[in-house]
Design goal:
By secondary structure, the protein is of the alpha/beta class. The protein has a single domain, classed as Purple Acid Phosphatase, chain A, domain 2. It has 6 helices and 14 strands. It has an 8-stranded mixed sheet with strand order 4-5-6-3-2-1-13-14. A 6-stranded mixed sheet has the order 7-8-9-10-12-11.
């Protein structure tokens, strides 16, 4: 099993990284291998032929695609997909090989324990139209925060990695003070960063490729492989 993590794809806007030589070279992927997109998947947007093309493109790849929701998803459409359970947490199958990992869930993927918390606040929502290009559901509900807390409690506040779309308060301050504001979600993630034991944290949202420190990674074009060997987690950058 291989687990790869990368940032936003926005439909087909920035998915070329998944066809790159550096990502695919020497890698023979199967359905038991996973590519996890850290938000703004963009394949559920307007229920158009473009949506279907994007979903089919991913569905036909040799790996299984997982994604965290970002702020640029059509949450009205996403809510129409049935909810099921997969690897210990709640998911929605867009296709047999494209899976939405829902907010506040803890998944066990071949021994790698992953906490997922999607969503982010759109800093450009002032020029977007609600239910067409912006959705208030981009930020989690109280129920989702409460479910996240319960699920973290079930694992005694210990996971291997955290994957979110936006980051906690202190990361937003580093990335773009004055541009990215603190909100209830970044506050929640800040508390999570202080209370939960984790080895690595991956996030998208900021359209940057940046290693904040040896624990926190912002992904856009970059792709990382997460490997577990003898109870140790290793992160390997796949593309340069």
């Amino acid at each position: 099993m291989a687990l790869f993590i990368t940032g936003d794809t926005h439909g087909d806007y920035s998915w070329s990284k998944l066809n790159s030589k550096n990502f695919l070279e020497g890698t023979h992927l199967t359905r038991k291998d996973f590519v996890l997109i850290a938000g703004d998947f963009g394949g559920v947007w307007d229920n158009s032929k473009s949506d279907k093309y994007v979903q089919n493109w991913y569905n036909e790849k040799p790996w299984t695609t997982l994604f965290v929701d970002g702020n640029h998803e059509n949450f009205d459409l996403l809510a129409q997909y049935p909810i099921s359970e997969w690897n210990g947490g709640k998911v929605q199958f867009l296709t047999p090989n494209v899976i939405h990992l829902m907010r506040g869930q803890v998944f066990d993927i071949e021994g790698i324990k992953i906490f997922i918390m999607g969503g982010a606040q759109s800093h450009d929502k002032w020029h977007r139209r609600e239910h067409e290009s912006w959705w208030s559901q981009e930020l989690p509900s109280n129920d989702e925060y409460e479910e996240a807390a319960r699920n973290l409690e079930k694992v005694d506040g210990k996971v291997d990695i955290i994957v979110t779309h936006c980051g906690p308060d202190h990361i937003q301050d580093i990335v773009g003070r004055g541009w990215y504001e603190h909100d209830k979600l970044t506050n929640f993630l800040q508390i999570t960063s202080e209370m939960v034991e984790y080895k690595y944290w991956f996030m998208g949202h900021y359209h940057q490729d940046r290693c904040i420190n040896l624990k926190h990674y912002i992904c856009y074009h970059d792709i990382y492989r997460v490997v577990k060997k003898d109870n140790a987690i290793e992160v390997i950058k796949r593309n340069n």
